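Researcher: Quick one. two chains, 968 residues in total.
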Amino acid sequence: MERRKLESAALFLSLLGVLLILPPLAVVFQLERRLFGVPFEVIYLFVCWLGLIAAAFWLGRRLPREAEAEPPAEGED
Amino acid sequence: MLTPDVVIAVAIGYVGLLFLIAYVSDRQARNDKAAFLRSPFIYTLAISVYCTSWTFYGAVGSAARNGLEYLAIYLGPTLVFIGWWFVLRRLVRISHKQRITSIADLLSARFGKSSRLAVLITVIAVIGIAPYIALQLKAVTSSLQAIAGVGEFPGRTLRGIDEVGLALAVAAGMALFTILFGTRNVDAKEQHHGVVAAIAFEAVVKLAALLAIGIFVIYAGGGLEAIFSRAEAAGIDIYSTGNFDDRWVAMNVLSAAAILCLPRQFQITVVENSNENHLRTAGWAFPAYLLLMSLFTLPIALFGLTSMPAGANPDMFVLTLPLSAGQEGLALFSFIGGFSSATSMIIVESIALSIMVSNHIVMPIMLRVTQGHGVASARGVSRLLLNSRRFSIALILLLGFLYFYLTRDSDALAPIGLISFCGVAQFLPAIIAALFWREASLKAATSAVAVGFVVWAWSSFMPSFQSSSPLVAQIMAEGPWGLAWLRPEALFGVESIDPLVNVVFWSLFLNTVTLVVVSLFTSQSVLERVQAALFADLFRRPGAGAPAVIRGSATVEDLYFVAERVLGAPRAKALFDGVAGAPPPQFIDRLERELAGSIGSASAHVMLSKVVSGDAVSLEEVFEMAGETRQVIEYSQELERTSAELRSTAQKLEEANTQLRAIDTEKDEFLSQVSHEVRTPMTSIRSFSEILLEEQRLTADERQRFVKTIHQESLRLTKLLDDILGMSALDHGEHGWDNAPIEAEHSIDRAIEVCSALARQRRMQLTVGSRAPSAVISGEPDRLCQVLINLVSNAIKYNDAVEPMVEVRSRTGRGRYLIEVADNGPGIPKAERKLIFEKFARGQSGGVTAPAGAGLGLAISRQLIERMNGKLELLPGTGPGACFRITLPLL
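Model:
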């Protein structure tokens, strides 16, 4: 993907993350049911969390790197 | 046997280990050996200082009381780090460029280097963090008591010491520890490699401890399924119904704000950052750390609620669960984990705050009081800085202890932390405006932060003293002076919503509105505008400014003070060697360049101009200079663009000129050709007619022949003139006909009919090859016929083969109609292939010596065919003879 698309993807990921953990999306998964013994909404939140981490990992390796100069030389005591 | 004595001894031993790590890392860093210290993972682990005792102990308590709510504290920061590209990257970049040392420094730098704003931010931060420090003290105190409480023999060490005394001792110990730890030296960049290494180590310890407890609980509780089922059977609402409400939203907002605004997070994430690209790793690794930290929180809480006696403090489950199971080793590990969380938070937070206090409050006061004397030497400055930091650390822990003392009756940890979060969140609107909004002004930022602080202090900070102050309790119940709508937890009479949501909404709402409205109605000072432009154009401008000598009167001491802060004592000393009295402008210029090497030219310029004259005039000058520079840059860019345009125009003109000259030559050649062509028949007509006029003795036969020649020549002349006229009409776009659908095969028939006579005359074969049955094209039948006659007669005329033959064939395919005229004549040499379609070109190499045409035929034919949207070309054949092809689009 080119730079602009990657940046858009990063922005989208952040906004999607916000929407996923807030009502009304979070409420959708309050099913009063359990999966592997754990309430569904807990599983939902952790899966979202994992997804966000994976996507951020993917993006972090691809977002453009500028020829960023190291911060200025070390200061002395 | 786990007694308080053992625990305290272990804690002290652990602190010693931390010292060792910090010391070794500092040495390594100084010798540039410790590359791993600058790795993105150490950076990420250090950021995990976000997880304090609140996380270690308090999250379980929070989960036991409010279910899933504890997760909001970690999801907010997760989202901020997932979106690191947009906010954190900017923060880090601008802070590196401007050498920002704290959050107060950042806001002050953006809003015109205002010292008043810096003081305000520092004061708010110190007050806002006090509850957070108190939380750590409370957690460590409670953990010590928890261990003392379950011992078979109450420890002698803690006998006779109550909670308050214990907390005071912990605070004093922590203060001493932090002073020894964080203020051993002053780094110009305010980076503490040793501290960061120790913090990263602590991050590993607390994560390992919490995971160990989690696994123990899963094991002891018989698996996740069993733990949740037992909790459900015990009447606990495991489905956390109604958890995703306005309080959930408010807590997410608060935690997202806190990860940016907490002084310690700013210190680690921004100031201690050694490479912007580390954010790439932290962007996913920090959220992953948070996930691991909160993975077992809910099972631990539920297991604690079902297995511990009623009334047990859920904040201490992490410690009391292994203790009650007799797992003393695990309990000790857990204590160390909690101790790690508390110490790392206190160390970094108080270092960050002490930098703010000493840089923005103590130093300015000292400079004012001593009039700059006593700080002229590097040692003086260093000592003053270090002492003011030590004092600040002691003050910060004292405030934390005082808060703890005054609010000691409250039991839960998490609500205390939320008070601090909400306090520092008041910086968020100003920070966002600093990064993204150029028009935000100093007055607006100052008043916005102040308004937010007042609302927070009134409705979040003050209520925590409810239990210790009757006056506060009365205000809480009835409002000040009986004004019910000002009751802290129901501001403006809104009682139906949660008090936390209440304060978060009103404080941030009024804060933001003030920021925007005041910005719209106030103007920025010159320095503010300069700084706003620097912040706003962060990624646009390469950061170069034009060198300009600052005039003014500054003492060497003033300049040295600046230089030493930026460059460090040895470099500053070398630079100032031999300079005394009023420094010459050249020296100031040189100093500026030196400073620019460290902090960027713009800030060096602004900084020096501030020091050198210290009044608004020089700032105006700076601004003007900056403006001039920009104008010059714009002007030169304009010039460059104009000259590029000129260059391309000139090139176009030259091309046009060449073309015109070529056309001119062509025209000359054309005229001479035409004259020549006209002259030949004219000469013969003239001479024959003269003979006829003058010679009377001609026989009738001869006369007849001469008249015939004259007739033929005049016919040729007419044909030539017709050709030239037709050519010129085509050249000027006068077509004289409109294309219409025609049957092209009829034109071929006609052309063959016309040419067969000529062919017979020359005794050659005109064969008709395969023909398309029918082809309807858009064109003009007579012109098409003319072109074909031209091609066929050429083929006949120039053919000198022994058995001369010409073949005409046609076919259709792929929407096109092809007519080919092929002969077995001499063909057309390669060199002439391009030329034959030019005017007056004639086959030269043919054996026929007297060409009968003017050489306009092919040129005209090609134009005619092009007019019918087709093309006439010579096929690049290899064998003997030539083959012309007409391609026309089928209708």
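The two ends of chain B are 104 Å apart (CA to CA).
Researcher: Thanks, that's what I needed.
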